[in-house]
Amino acid sequence: MQQRFVYEYLKDLNQSAAYRRTWYNCAPGSLCAAASRLYRNVKVNRAVQSAMKDRLASGRIRADDVMRWLWNIVIADPNEPIQYRRVNCRKCWSDIARDPTDDPNPDCGFYFGEGIGEIYHSDT
Prior knowledge:
The chain is mainly alpha-helical and about 120 residues long.
């Protein structure tokens, strides 16, 4: 049962949840105390630490990969894949054929010369 507790603990690193999954008939009031007591057991704690070291050594979790992934999130530019653009409406340049790349006409009565908003998805 202790090996089962170690296995369950490594899933989410939650003592109470691992204890509940290992011993189904545990009273809710004593769950935290029992889980903590079992985790402090020398054999169980050594098994958890050993399994954590094995997990790190096997390459399942590498700190460098996690830091690189987090850094890429921090420096990501949200405008790369999706952009919000202001383009001219169909009334901006009514006397000329509408070119979507033209800027909005500041004298346009519709949308107060600001044009309309358009979301542009770049091809990735």
